Amino acid sequence: MTHIWNRLQFRATAYRLTLTTCVVLLVWAPWAEVHAEEEEPTLPILAPLDSQVIETSWYQSEPVIVAPVTEGVVAESADQQSLEERVAALEKLVEANPADTSATLPPPETCDCPSSSLKRVDLIEDPTYKLRGRLYVDGITYDDDNATAAFFNKDRENEFGFDTARLGLEGYVYENVHYIIEVEFEGTETDYKDVFAEYQSLPGVGNFRAGFFKEPIGLEELTSSRFTTFMERSYASLTFAPSRNFGVMMYNSLDACDDASWFLGGFRTNSDDSPNGIATNRSDSNDWAFDARFAWLPYYDEPSDGRYLVHLGTSYSYRHTLGPSEFETGAWVGNQPPIGVGAMSTSDDYNQIGFEFAVVWGAMSVQSEYFQAFTTGGQQYNGASVECSYFLTGENRGYDKRHKCFDRVHPFEPAFWVDTCDGCCCGRGAWEIAGGYSFSNLREGLDIMPGTLERAWVDGFIFGVNWYLNPHSRVMFDYNYEVTKFVDSGTPDSNANLFGVRWQVDW
User: Distance between CA 169 and CA 183 in Å, rounded?
Assistant: First the structure.
């Protein structure tokens, strides 16, 4: 019995060992099969230059020696080495035959203008608008000649108030139609200023504008009053530059850098600027003017954005008026013109030419213009101006290359004065001093109205100081010595002194 029991225990132990072995095999076999199919990972070893790299493996018993590699990188494949050999062979071929490369490879296209003039154009799908406007608060004193004031029974009174209060909108309809709507409020009267639509980027033509806007005559006239050196424009500009009228105009640049530009337009002369007077422009009286202007920048320092430039320009205008052509002028300071000045030709049309010159050389600038009018009746009228300015704080006058006129001044620092924990803190803004001379020769032809508006020579000197608080605000101080010499011997000449102060804000 004992023998039988021992045999049974031995068999039970054998059965348990067999069962345990089977279970282990069933669990280990799938795991071993999966891992056997995976790639054997290799461990690259970085080696110094011109040395051999020894690669080893988790499953290789002996290391593998491969070709030398460059410093700090893994050995390159045969394809990469072959590519380097071909590049080296090509470089040797180019060095050996330089003439062939110039003949076979065309030179790259170049543009004389810098990359800064190439601007990104954003697509505009919906109409846009931006509020614009300006506000000028003036104080003017007139010291007229007593004899002249008594002869014409007119004495210019001092002024204080708004010289200009304008409000408007501008924007785009899609990306190539630009519009401006701006009106001026003068007491009980509302006048048009710039009201036009402009189609831009037309092939060949460039830009086409229609509406009520400035004719392309005169550098000083085309420069906005926000950016002129003095409170008002010179005698010559006020006499011969026609300013705004109803019409159409085309203009474009002759080169990609906008160094040369042309302007062509047709306008109704002496257009009424009142919205209520729009019917007065319905007539068949042939009161039209045709203008042409060409402006060129023989030198423009692009890296400094025009801190150094030379401007040359010329203009021509043929003008047909309703009745005999009349010529008057305005004041260099204030809104009231010289007392008793006005001439009339014996014809209703005339040809006019103009010349422009300007130099901006850092903080210094010089600007000059000349106009000459030739009437078909034989009379001639002319005028000229020269203005110089200098920024004591180092700034320079801005310039608009697209429209060929002066632009906004940007002070190096704004003017401010505030109280802080450490005491007062202030900024100086920009300070500019300026002087000029201008004349207007209206001595030929006839008096417009004897005893009221008579032929005369008007000239004067002006001196000014401008304080730019920031790019959109400035304070102006101007003094003008005005001389009027009448043709008629019985009319006393005039020597007047004018002084003006303006605080200007625009947006």
Answer: 10
